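User: I'm writing a tutorial on reading structure tokens. Could you give me a worked example: one chain, its sequence, then its tokens, then a sentence or two explaining what the tokens reveal?
Assistant: Sure. Here is the example chain.
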Amino acid sequence: MPSRPRLPPRPHRDDVLISLGGLLGGVVLWALGLVSNDWFPGLPDALPLVPLTVMAGAELLRRTAPGFALPLATAALAADQASGSLIATVLMFTDVLYAAVVYGTYRAARLIPQATVHLTVVATVVPVVIFRTAVSLLIGVAFGLVVLTPAWTGWIIRGHRDTAATERLRAEQTALLAELDRREAVTAERARMARELHDLVANHLSAIAIHSTAALSLGDPAGTDRALGVIRENSVRGLAEMRRLIGLLRDAGNEDAPAAAPTLDALDTLLEQTRTTTAPGDGQEFVLCDERPADAAPLPAPVELAAYRIVQESLTNALKHAAPGRVDVTLAQVPGGPLEVGVISPYDEGPVPRAPGSGTGLIGMRERVSLLGGTLDAGPVTGPSGTVWRVRAALPLGDGGAAPQP
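And here are its predicted structure tokens:
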């Protein structure tokens, strides 16, 4: 199917008004007999209206088709000067020339002012050489006012418009980058809060789930009372941790608000709490082996916090998934090397865990290690004593890690 011919764009409303105003003004001047000159006597008196009308048509195209409007206006100006010039025709030509620089292509906007300079020089020098009078200089002055002034005015205006457009684009890009930074900050903060919330309450909720299951299944009143006691203790601890976290969030703007973070010195307490939360008859044993040198330098706060949370989450997973047996927690560090954290627990291939899990614990551990630029391996490993679940993290101590992230 043949394509329909593309119609020229509709003239701008302001261009229509300018064209009509110039045409009506020229007609009024012609009616009053205000014609500048008459180079060729005997021509029809209405002849100046023809270039006036053509110039008004060029005004309609000043914005939508400046590359066509300027040659049309130039021809109309030449005809106007030959037939008896109307000032309205000349003024409309200056506007078309100005619009060609402002709305035309960049190449045209650069060449037109340069061309007007050369034309003005020629229009000034040639009459002086021919007539050799001071009055002949006025021809160059008049030519410069008609041609040179509007062209360079348009160039200046275009430069300001291009600068304004560049600044607007730069402002939009800056706003976009700020919005991207804000979204990234919000996402990072939400991830941090999710990790902290999970690490604070997952251990207690897992213990509650395990012991509530045991309390429902045990027929021994003493065992049931012990399970209920553990449930209550973990409920109180979980509630206290939740209140502390909520308090920190509410006092985020207060720099003096306490923001205590656990350290590796509290691992003994963590293991003792984990021992008390094991279900009756599980037969799990938790052992800590700290192989770090006695004179080792203090660990950076983010590294120590990440190591503590990795051990905490690994113990929680052992409560929920590990088979009965010994759970070994190891801390090691060579001088100048990373802190190595290892947790090994018996691997249970059973399909049903003691407590439900969502898998976000491993995600949180990987995020913490990634923020510090370290490595983490977690999964089943076959060894001399059978298959075990091993978590091994290497946390660098240098400045390559990220800023502290709870």
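What the tokens reveal: Confidence is low (pLDDT under 50) at residues 400-406. The chain has two domains: 13-174, 264-406.
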